[in-house]
Each structure stands twice: as structure tokens, then as C-alpha cells.
């Protein structure tokens, strides 16, 4: 009996030792599992942050012509454009020169205002006014000054009569070419009448903005929107020399100065009395007002019907064309732009 009890006791102590060891092993296994779970969680968080960063980067970048562009950076640095009027390179007769330094005594009057003639150059040889140094304002007017425009602007009465005779001869040739009898009573005086009418239709080539505005710019504390709407516009399409007619709406927000309200329709008429396309006409009017008045912003909208696609071509009699040009705060702020469109009846 004594020997069996000793063996039983040894077995129990052995079992106890094995149980303790297995308990320790289990604890260590649990600890290692917790460590691995924690490591995996941290790796997962790092991976998710990297994926999120890559997604944001991909969203903020786009590809233009094979080049990656940072959209967010481009939008944050975008500035409103003051687009230059469309100019035919063939119209440039002189190369642009640098603005000369204006003497303080000669360039300002007794009230401290800059001389109005400071925007024009003076030819040292003959003393005549020549091309302005401004990118927009020219002695001949605004936009597309040309040699022919200058000649017409400065012509004498004899030269004017010679110009009209040349037009009359060209019209007579056209009448003959279309099959008319140029000697019949109804047509006999048509070349003269047409020449006079064409010179009237295009008298904008004989005007410049300085004479049109005529100093009607005044200091005033007004800083709210000024609108002149429903200005009748008549012009000639430069592609077919047939009319397009419509309405123009002009708005500006003054900064320090206001312009006589009649000058806005006069500026529009000056540019319309040239061979035009509607898109360029809209931009020229907006850029002219922006340049001479320096307001917070300018908006111009025009709606017109073009006889070149009513009488010929697609012959759509009810189609109208709407063009717009917005500068300054009208371009930057959609609320200001929408207010203008609502006030002129183009937005509900």
C-alpha cells in the first residue's frame, strides 16, 4: 500500500506541473496574439491613410495633353481675365514701343490730373498723334486699328470725294455683273446712293473713343450696379456684308468714377458702325468701358438676328444669337453676374 500511494502522489505532482506549464504557454500565446492583432491594426491604419492620400492626390490632378495638372492649385491661383480685343495681325502698322517716362510737371494739370494726351504718342518728326501705348486704346479708336482706318480718319474733302467715286464705280460693276441695266432710271443713281449709305454704315472707322466720351467721366461715390439695357444695334456682318440687328445690355459697377450714361450707347454704336462679327463687337464694347473707366467690373450681353442666316444659308428666320462678355467682379462673382442677367431679363 505504501508503494502505490507514493506512485499516485508522484503522478498527481507531475500532472500539476504539466498543467502549470500549459497554463503559462496559453498565457504567452494569448499575449503574442494580442501583439500581432495590434501590429496588424496599425499597419491597416497606415495603409488606409496612404490610400486616402493617393485618392485625394488623384482627384486633385488631371491630365491635359499628356501633362498632369494640379487642379486645386490652378483654381486657387486663377485670376479673372481681361481679354484683349480680337485684332487682325495685318492691322498692325507699327511695332509696340515702351511707354516713355512722363515729366511730372508736363504730364499733369493744375489739379494734379494726368494730361489726357499722355495716352498718345507724338511723332518727333511731324508732331502728329500716332498709335497709343495702351494695349486697348488707340488714336483710331479701340481694337483693330489699321492703315485704311487712319487714312479715312485724316482724309481731306477731296480725298473723301475720290473715295466715294471709287465705291460708286465698284457698285456699278456689281450691278452689271448681276445682270442689271445700269442705265435704266431706277438703277442709274443707285451707285451714288449706295456709296453714301455704305460710308454712313461704316462711319465708326472715323471715330475714336476719346472723342466719343468727350471727358464725360465724373467723380462720384456711387458703388452699385449701373445698367443701360435695350440699346438698339445695327451692324454689318464682315463675312457677307449684310446686316445683323439686335439689342445690347451694358452694366458696370463704379470704383471711383461714373460715365455719362449716353456715352455707353455711343461707344456701342461706334463699334457697330464697322464690319463686325457679334462676338468681337461684344468684347470690344466691354473692353473699351473697362479701359477708359477702370470700374470694378463690366458686363455686356447682346442678342441679335443675322440676315446672313435668315435670307440665305440655313434660312432660319426665328433664330437669334446671344453673346456676352463679363470682366472684373462680374467674372469673379456669380451672384453679381446673376443679378445682372436677372435685371436685363435673361435669367428667371
Automatic annotation (TrEMBL):
<comment type="function">
    <text>GTP cyclohydrolase 1 is the first enzyme in the biosynthetic pathway leading to folic acid.</text>
</comment>
<feature type="compositionally biased region" description="Polar residues">
    <location>
        <begin position="62"/>
        <end position="84"/>
    </location>
</feature>
<comment type="pathway">
    <text>Cofactor biosynthesis; 7,8-dihydroneopterin triphosphate biosynthesis; 7,8-dihydroneopterin triphosphate from GTP: step 1/1.</text>
</comment>
<keyword id="KW-0021">Allosteric enzyme</keyword>
<dbReference type="InterPro" id="IPR043133">
    <property type="entry name" value="GTP-CH-I_C/QueF"/>
</dbReference>
<dbReference type="InterPro" id="IPR001474">
    <property type="entry name" value="GTP_CycHdrlase_I"/>
</dbReference>
<keyword id="KW-0342">GTP-binding</keyword>
<feature type="domain" description="GTP cyclohydrolase I">
    <location>
        <begin position="167"/>
        <end position="344"/>
    </location>
</feature>
<dbReference type="GO" id="GO:0005737">
    <property type="term" value="C:cytoplasm"/>
</dbReference>
<dbReference type="GO" id="GO:0046656">
    <property type="term" value="P:folic acid biosynthetic process"/>
</dbReference>
<dbReference type="InterPro" id="IPR043134">
    <property type="entry name" value="GTP-CH-I_N"/>
</dbReference>
<feature type="compositionally biased region" description="Basic and acidic residues">
    <location>
        <begin position="148"/>
        <end position="165"/>
    </location>
</feature>
<dbReference type="InterPro" id="IPR020602">
    <property type="entry name" value="GTP_CycHdrlase_I_dom"/>
</dbReference>
<dbReference type="GO" id="GO:0005525">
    <property type="term" value="F:GTP binding"/>
</dbReference>
<dbReference type="GO" id="GO:0003934">
    <property type="term" value="F:GTP cyclohydrolase I activity"/>
</dbReference>
<protein>
    <recommendedName>
        <fullName>GTP cyclohydrolase 1</fullName>
        <ecNumber>3.5.4.16</ecNumber>
    </recommendedName>
</protein>
<feature type="compositionally biased region" description="Low complexity">
    <location>
        <begin position="27"/>
        <end position="45"/>
    </location>
</feature>
<keyword id="KW-0289">Folate biosynthesis</keyword>
<comment type="similarity">
    <text>Belongs to the GTP cyclohydrolase I family.</text>
</comment>
<dbReference type="GO" id="GO:0006729">
    <property type="term" value="P:tetrahydrobiopterin biosynthetic process"/>
</dbReference>
<feature type="compositionally biased region" description="Basic and acidic residues">
    <location>
        <begin position="100"/>
        <end position="116"/>
    </location>
</feature>
<dbReference type="GO" id="GO:0008270">
    <property type="term" value="F:zinc ion binding"/>
</dbReference>
<dbReference type="GO" id="GO:0046654">
    <property type="term" value="P:tetrahydrofolate biosynthetic process"/>
</dbReference>
<keyword id="KW-0547">Nucleotide-binding</keyword>
<feature type="region of interest" description="Disordered">
    <location>
        <begin position="1"/>
        <end position="165"/>
    </location>
</feature>
<dbReference type="Pfam" id="PF01227">
    <property type="entry name" value="GTP_cyclohydroI"/>
</dbReference>
<dbReference type="InterPro" id="IPR018234">
    <property type="entry name" value="GTP_CycHdrlase_I_CS"/>
</dbReference>
<keyword id="KW-0378">Hydrolase</keyword>
Amino acid at each position: 500500500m505504501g508503494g502505490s500511494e507514493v506512485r499516485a502522489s508522484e503522478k498527481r505532482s507531475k500532472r500539476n506541473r504539466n498543467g502549470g506549464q500549459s497554463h503559462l504557454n496559453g498565457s504567452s500565446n494569448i499575449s503574442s496574439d494580442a501583439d500581432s492583432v495590434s501590429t496588424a491594426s496599425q499597419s491597416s491604419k497606415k495603409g488606409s491613410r496612404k490610400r486616402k492620400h493617393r485618392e485625394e492626390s488623384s482627384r486633385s490632378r488631371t491630365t491635359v495633353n499628356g501633362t498632369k495638372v494640379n487642379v486645386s492649385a490652378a483654381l486657387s491661383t486663377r485670376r479673372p481675365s481681361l481679354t484683349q480685343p480680337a485684332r487682325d495681325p495685318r492691322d498692325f502698322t507699327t511695332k509696340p514701343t515702351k511707354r516713355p517716362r512722363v515729366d511730372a510737371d508736363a504730364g499733369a494739370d493744375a489739379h494734379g490730373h494726368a494730361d489726357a494726351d499722355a495716352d498718345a504718342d507724338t511723332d518727333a518728326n511731324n508732331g502728329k498723334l500716332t498709335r497709343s501705348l495702351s494695349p486697348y486704346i488707340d488714336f483710331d479708336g479701340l481694337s483693330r486699328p489699321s492703315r485704311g482706318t487712319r487714312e479715312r480718319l485724316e482724309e481731306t474733302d477731296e480725298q473723301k470725294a475720290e473715295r466715294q467715286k471709287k465705291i460708286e464705280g465698284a457698285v456699278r460693276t456689281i450691278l452689271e455683273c448681276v445682270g442689271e441695266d445700269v442705265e435704266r432710271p431706277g438703277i442709274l443713281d443707285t451707285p451714288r446712293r449706295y456709296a453714301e449709305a455704305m460710308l454712313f454704315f461704316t462711319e465708326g472707322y472715323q471715330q475714336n473713343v476719346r472723342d466719343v466720351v468727350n471727358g464725360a467721366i465724373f467723380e462720384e461715390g456711387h458703388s452699385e450696379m449701373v445698367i443701360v439695357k435695350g440699346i438698339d444695334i445695327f451692324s454689318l456682318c464682315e463675312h457677307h456684308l449684310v446686316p445683323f440687328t439686335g439689342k445690347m445690355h451694358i452694366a458696370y459697377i463704379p470704383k471711383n468714377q461714373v460715365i455719362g450714361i449716353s456715352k455707353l450707347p455711343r461707344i456701342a454704336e461706334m463699334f457697330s458702325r464697322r464690319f463686325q462679327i457679334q462676338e468681337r463687337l461684344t468684347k470690344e464694347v466691354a473692353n473699351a468701358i473697362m479701359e477708359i473707366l477702370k470700374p470694378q467690373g463690366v458686363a455686356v450681353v447682346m442678342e441679335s438676328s443675322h440676315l446672313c442666316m435668315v435670307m440665305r444659308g440655313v434660312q432660319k428666320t426665328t433664330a437669334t444669337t446671344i453673346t456676352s462678355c463679363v470682366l472684373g467682379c462680374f467674372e469673379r462673382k456669380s451672384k453679381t453676374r446673376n443679378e445682372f442677367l436677372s435685371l436685363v431679363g435673361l435669367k428667371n
